[in-house]
Write a structure and sequence with these properties.
It is built from eight helices and two strands; from the N terminus they run H-H-H-H-E-H-H-E-H-H. It has one domain. It has a two-stranded antiparallel sheet. The protein is mainly alpha-helical. About 12% of the residues have low confidence.
Length: 198
């Protein structure tokens, strides 16, 4: 799905760091519901990494769909006490993961290779290196992907603005500020992944 190797590595590093932070918070959590939520976030990050790489993109699709659909229900039930924004965002993130895993084959089925005239004339390895991928997936997949992209990008910016506000007056970022920043980074990363399905 992600055709640029550099972007793949950036997303991999971003979600790997987010997963490590979620595991750290899982260890520090005293409440059972909080620990489960952090584990689910960690699994979500692992799923995002796998989707960035073609070799593992279709790994265990059905178990992932079931897992993230169940995770969406979990957050819909347990995250109400964290405010409407966090509750809605966490639920949509997990539902979005389940949808992406489900819709990935449909989005990929419409992927075609397009080349300019000069590239077509020089069809060798150099021409293939400069080929561009264009997606023409089903309309309903594109529409959902557009909506999710907008939602995740806007939510990511809101989380980052909250992190900046929380960081004011702090000599160094605390766990709460870092958590807000990680929420923003994960949301923006999800936005990049859904954008790639358009």
């Amino acid at each position: 799905m992600i055709t640029d190797p550099g972007l793949r590595w950036i997303l991999t590093l971003v979600f790997a760091m987010a997963a490590a932070f979620c595991l750290y918070r899982c260890v520090r959590r005293a409440q059972f519901t909080g620990s489960v939520s952090e584990v689910l976030h960690t699994l979500m990050c692992a799923g995002m990494v796998s989707m960035a790489w073609p070799a593992t993109m279709s790994f265990a699709r059905l178990p992932q769909i079931i897992l993230f659909a169940a995770a969406a229900v979990w957050f819909a039930v347990t995250a109400r006490g964290h405010g409407w924004f966090a509750w809605t965002h966490h639920t949509l993130m997990m539902a979005g993961m389940a949808w992406m895993v489900f819709a990935m084959p449909l989005a990929m089925s419409g992927m075609t290779m397009t080349m300019t005239g000069g590239e077509h004339a020089a069809m060798g390895h150099a021409g293939m290196d400069h080929a561009r991928m264009a997606t023409n997936g089903p309309a309903h997949v594109v529409i959902v992907a557009v909506v999710l992209t907008v939602v995740f990008v806007v939510a990511g910016l809101v989380w980052l603005s909250r992190a900046i506000d929380a960081a004011r007056g702090e000599r160094r970022p605390g766990q709460r500020t870092t958590g807000l920043a990680m929420e923003g980074v994960m949301s923006l990363g999800m936005g990049v992944m859904t954008l790639a399905m358009i």
